[in-house]
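Anyone opening a protein record will find just a pair of labelled lines. With that in mind, the following record should read easily:
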Amino acid sequence: SPSNYQRRSLIRETWAQQSLFPDMRLLFMMGKVNDDSMMQAVLYEYETYQDIVQEDFLDSYKNLTYKGLMALKWISTYCSQTNYVLKV
């Protein structure tokens, strides 16, 4: 969720550290929220880490299917040569 900045930071700092897995690409898939300041914060976070993929749907529990499909579409478009994908 766009509001989970601290969770994403913890993941970046622990098990998904680039230094631990130099060939790994970490991405956070998310939709949008109806909060302009939150969307600005997500944009700033993206500019800092370059690890957020966002599409134009409301990020909510009922839209988790959209997130899954979005991830599959992104992976098939930009990671077609990858051997493994881990969705956590």
Residues 28 and 52 are 5 Å apart (CA to CA). The first helix runs from residue 5 to 13. The chain has three helices and two strands.
